[in-house]
Every structure is written in C-alpha cells, then in structure tokens.
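Figure 2 data, in text form.
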Amino acid sequence: MTPIEYHNTAYSRRQFFRKSGTGLGMAALASLLGQRGVSAADGLADLGNSLPQIAPKAKRVIYISLIGAPSQLDLFDYKPDLKKRFKEDLKTWLKGQGERLTGMTSGQGAFPLAPSIFKFQQHGQSGTHISELLPWTGKMVDDLCLIKSMHTDAINHEPANQLVYTGSMQAGKASIGSWLSYGLGSMNQELPSFVVLHATHSSPHSNVQAISSRLWGSGYLPGKHAGVALRSLGDPVLFLQDTPGISRETRRNMLDGLNDLNRRSFSAIGDPEIEVRMQQYEMAFRMQASVPELTDLTGETEATYQLYGDDSKKRGTFANSALMARRLLERGVRFVQIFHRGWDQHGSLPRDIASQCKDVDQGGYGLIQDLKQRGMLEDTLVIWGGEFGRTVYCQGGLSETDYGRDHHPRCFSIWMAGGGIKGGQVYGETDEMSYNIVRDPVHIRDLHATLLHSLGLEHERLSFKFQGLDQRLTGVEPAKVLKELFA
C-alpha cells in the first residue's frame, strides 16, 4: 500500500470514537425531532447545545457594529457641567486615576478637558437624554435600553473588536454569530444562518479602521458556522453565478458527482471537514437562486423606503443594509451583523461624527419601526454600539468648535432593543467626567451572556471541546446575565 493509499484509508482514534459514539444518537434524534430538529443538531459535537436550555425570548439577532468607537460623550452620556471646565488640564488628575494612555496621547504635555459642543435633549416618556446628532434615535428612545456603563479590557481597536465579537482578544476564537449557528442551528435551507453586511460611510475625512474576517469567522467551530459576507458593491457573493453555457441541470449533475466522491472519502477516513465541504457546496447551489431574490428590492413599498430614508435606495449604504437585514431575518437568517466603519475620531470629531451619525440615524430608526410593524421586534434582539469609548480630554489641539478624543476602555454606551428587552430604560451610570463607572458596570462578557440568555442559551453550558479545553464565548472569567434588562 502506498503512503497516499494508507492516508486515505486511515481511521484515527478520535474519528472512530466520534463516529461510533454519535452515529446512533443522531439517528435516534432524527426519528424523534424530524427534519427541523436534525437541521438544528447537524454536525454538533454536543447535541445538547442544539436545543434551547432556557425559555428563549428572541429567535434572531441584528448586531450593528460601529467600528472605530463612537464617542459616548457626544451621543449619549450627557455631562452639561463640563462646559464650565473647558480646557482644564487633567494631567495631574489622570495620574491619580491610573490612566492607560495610548501611544497617540502619551507624549502630550497637557490633557485639556473637551466638553461636547453638541446639545442634548430629553426624549420620550422616559426622558432619556440624546444628542442632537441623533434626532431619529431620540424619537424611539422608549423602544431602547441605553446601557451607559459598558467597559472592556482592550485599549486598541484590533484586540477590542476581537473581544467584542469573539469573546477574546486572542485570534482564532469563534465569533458570536458562529456560536449561535452552532448552538441553535439554522432556521432556513436557502441561506446561511449567519450573514455579514458591510455598509459604506459618507464621511470623506473619517479614519477608517481596518477589520478582518476573524470578526465573523468560526474559529475552532466547524467551518459551516462562519459568517457569509454579502458585498455592498458588485455581485453580492463572488463566483456564485454559473459560467455562461452551464445550465442548472448540468451544475446539479456536477455537484452530485462531486458529492459522491466526497462521501466515499468521508466513509474511508471520517474527516468531519469533508462533510462541512459537502454542506457548503449545497448551500452555494441553493444561494444561486435565493441571493438574487434577496437583493432585489423592487418589491419594497415607497413607504418602506421613506421609513429608512432616501439612502435605502442606494446599495451599500447603512440604510440599505438595515433594510437588507430585515429581509434576511424574514428568510430565516439567525444572525445578521452590519459593520459601519469610520468612527475613530482622534481629530476633527465634530465634523466627522456628524457625518457618521447622519449615515446611521434614520436607518436605525427605520429598522426598529419596520420590525415593530411586522411583529418581529419582540423576538428579534437588536444591538447598536462600538468596541470602547472616547476620552473626556482632547487629543491634539483644542478650540471651542474643534477637538479629537482618544480611546477609552473604562466606560462607553450602547443600546439594545427587542428580544424581550424592556424599552425606555437607562442602565448604569458614569461619573461627572464620563471616565469611570459609578453604578451597574457591564463588561463585554456580561453583554455576551445576556445575548445568549435572550436566545435561550446558558453561557456556561454552550461550549465546544478544542485542544483539550471546553471553549466558551464568555471564556472562563465571571460573566452575569443582566436579567433586570428584560421586561
């Protein structure tokens, strides 16, 4: 027997126990649960993960990821008393706080206090203060839970984004959407359970933070749980269309032949990645029909376009992505992530943040109202926020109309809506400088635990064995479910 023949027929100890230990269990589960149960449990190492462990409040999630970190001081964390301390040097005060400084401000001779130049107004029955930059958000504050006491461990973008979207600052971990796909399975047969949308931004001056596919990757989980990114320009998915002259029937015959070869290989060596490959081929074949229908918005009413704003007609904008997210949910996609970049405002913040807010404000409002009108908000969890906050002191030069802010991990603001979350509440509070949390701190791990709880999963039980460890989205550090946020 040649080395290649030996390799193709080899059967590892791990593969033997996996195949012999789960084969009968999968067959039994299939007979009890039917097709829906099998699709949810398909390919899981722990079948218990495929079933909700507590009563779910939500079925699906939209995560609006504002890459670069929007300033809480200029959007949500109203601190009017800072205006009379304009330009006060905080250098001595910061030393007493044990401040972690980035390389961008560590060499500054002074750290002048920069109050927000924007006006705030109370909105809704809750009387929540919202910046003038977000008038549409102000209209829906009674649908939102504003968390002002978020905090994180990272002070730079790449590790901070990895922590927010994978639960760890180390690369190679599974993303939130991948965990939900793994734990709950798919609700549709035509599209992936996890879809990523990249919205364009209109500010020509903004500092566009680079992001990588690690933020929507499956890490150590089977590859089928990774997010599928739909492109904002050109073909939504590259190489999805058949080559001219190749009919659907011919493509189906080709795929059947390829699957037959893959089944033979899987029977011989039992490599689970072969099964994943076959599933991905089949998904791509089905997406050839489903994606063109998904991205064709001609059936949407003019009232819907007006709800999201005029930008919703322009492919790739945030408003268009928000509308696309609703369409994805309607077709059974479990987790939709919208990335909107350009929020890293170290200088010229007033100019750039105004442009960024204009991008997302009405589109976010339209999404929440559209979900409400269709009866979908009650079982859809929507999250809006960045990876950390911004400093109260100015980076670089300061004037009465212009300033920049550096990274600040100690406190920042996000909002949540739907999925059982009680609207019209503000959770947590910061000190007079929007510097430290004084009430109800919420770590990123707590946000993850609460997200999983909303979908009926206990964060300590949702795990995957990898390299001898039980990997979890919330890791091994303490994490708490914020049950007081739910209605």
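Caption note: The longest helix spans residues 13-41.
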